[in-house]
């Protein structure tokens, strides 16, 4: 034990301990720092040393991509060859089974082929990629271009044409089953474009609250209020859910002087009450958020905004056209009714394209 004012020195035995003499009364025993062992020696794969093995691996990869391409086309063919017949459970099973087999082959072919390509043929040396929080210098950016070119050489993407071409073919064919399956959303024997151009609204159909179906009087709609609306009697219609998806409407009341109406559409509203399709013209999400002070409608999916005071014109976001307006009037009992169906197709813009 050392007295105050004197330095203290501790001695330790062993190869890895050392003594540090610091300020009086303080001593620290430390060990040698652990050395970085570095990377183990790189082990070459069989495909790196044997060209025949590399060629075989290449054949496996593009064969798997061919299998994926065949699976996508098989799924499309199965959709046509094994249609679903109403009340025939066997047709449902066959349709699902064969389409599922095709899509499974398409997925597995791309997935396993890409993994085998990476493990057997692509460059596999360890590397350190230094990242910087700021924009690199021109030299660094030029080097990045070189690295991309080196990656192309190391992966063989540009050199192994069969792998590249079969991968591109598999990726192009892969979405086809989904595209073909969308056709099944329309009832058998009916034109899907025509179905989407017409809704359940007709002249004289009362506007009713969603979901209970209670008819709405004009006097019920106060300035600044919003009603979610469906056609009266919708619950008794065939394909009720499909009809509702097309016919849903938002009903709002503004001060009549706040409406900037076109001359040809002035009789589409009633005393400041206007009705617009609730289906966004971008991809069909429900437009359900109303900002009372600005008279803006907001689609929560992709933030398209529509100006209710100006025929629901698009003022922000990806929507391509205004929300279709439902012409309305009031019947002898004071209930709000539709003058007709919408004058243009509802929903995403692509529905109206023949």
From TrEMBL:
InterPro entries: QcrA_N, Rieske_2Fe-2S, Rieske_2Fe-2S_sf, Rieske_Fe-S_prot. Residues 1-51 are annotated as: Disordered. GO terms for cellular component: plasma membrane. Gene3D superfamilies: Rieske [2Fe-2S] iron-sulphur domain. Its main location: membrane. GO terms for molecular function: 2 iron, 2 sulfur cluster binding; metal ion binding; monooxygenase activity; oxidoreductase activity, acting on paired donors, with incorporation or reduction of molecular oxygen. Residues 1-11 have a biased composition (Polar residues). Signal peptide: none annotated. The keyword Disulfide bond applies. Pfam families: QcrA_N, Rieske. Keywords: 2Fe-2S, Cell membrane, Disulfide bond, Electron transport, Iron, Iron-sulfur, Membrane, Metal-binding, Oxidoreductase, Respiratory chain, Transmembrane, Transmembrane helix, Transport. SUPFAM superfamilies: ISP domain. It is a multi-pass membrane protein. Belongs to the Rieske iron-sulfur protein family. PANTHER family: CYTOCHROME B-C1 COMPLEX SUBUNIT RIESKE, MITOCHONDRIAL (PTHR10134). Iron-sulfur subunit of the cytochrome bc1 complex, an essential component of the respiratory electron transport chain required for ATP synthesis. The bc1 complex catalyzes the oxidation of menaquinol and the reduction of cytochrome c in the respiratory chain. The bc1 complex operates through a Q-cycle mechanism that couples electron transfer to generation of the proton gradient that drives ATP synthesis. This is Cytochrome bc1 complex Rieske iron-sulfur subunit. It comes from Labedella endophytica.
């Amino acid at each position: 034990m050392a007295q105050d004012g004197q330095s203290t020195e501790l001695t330790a035995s062993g190869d890895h301990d050392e003594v540090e003499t610091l300020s009086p009364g303080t001593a620290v025993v430390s060990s040698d720092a652990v050395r970085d062992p570095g990377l183990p020696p790189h082990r070459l794969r069989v495909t790196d040393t044997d060209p025949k093995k590399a060629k075989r691996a290449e054949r496996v990869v593009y064969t798997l991509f061919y299998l994926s391409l065949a699976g996508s086309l098989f799924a499309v063919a199965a959709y046509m060859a094994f249609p679903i017949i109403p009340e025939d459970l066997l047709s449902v099973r066959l349709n699902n089974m064969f389409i599922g087999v095709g899509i499974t082959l398409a997925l597995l072919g791309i997935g396993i082929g890409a993994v085998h390509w990476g493990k057997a043929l692509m460059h596999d040396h360890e590397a350190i990629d230094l990242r910087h929080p700021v924009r690199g210098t021109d030299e660094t950016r030029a080097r990045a271009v070189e690295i991309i070119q080196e990656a192309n050489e190391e992966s063989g993407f540009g050199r192994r044409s069969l792998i590249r071409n079969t991968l591109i073919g598999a990726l192009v064919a892969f979405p086809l089953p989904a595209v073909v399956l969308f056709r099944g959303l329309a009832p058998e024997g009916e034109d899907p474009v025509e179905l989407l151009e017409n809704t359940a609204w007709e002249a004289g159909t009362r506007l009713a609250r969603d979901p209970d179906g209670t008819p709405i009087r004009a006097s019920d709609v106060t300035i600044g209020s919003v009603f979610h609306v469906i056609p009266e009697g919708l619950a008794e219609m065939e394909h009720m859910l499909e009809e509702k998806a097309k016919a849903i409407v938002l009903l709002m009341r503004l001060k009549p002087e706040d409406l900037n109406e076109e001359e040809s559409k002035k009789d589409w509203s009633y005393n400041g009450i206007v009705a617009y399709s609730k289906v966004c013209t971008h991809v069909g999400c429900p437009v359900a958020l109303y900002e009372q002070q600005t008279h803006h409608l907001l689609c929560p999916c992709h933030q398209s905004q529509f100006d209710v005071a100006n025929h629901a014109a698009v003022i922000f976001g990806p929507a391509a056209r205004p929300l279709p307006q439902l012409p309305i009037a009031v019947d002898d009992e004071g209930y709000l009714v539709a003058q007709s169906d919408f004058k243009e197709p509802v929903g995403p813009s692509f529905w109206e394209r023949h």
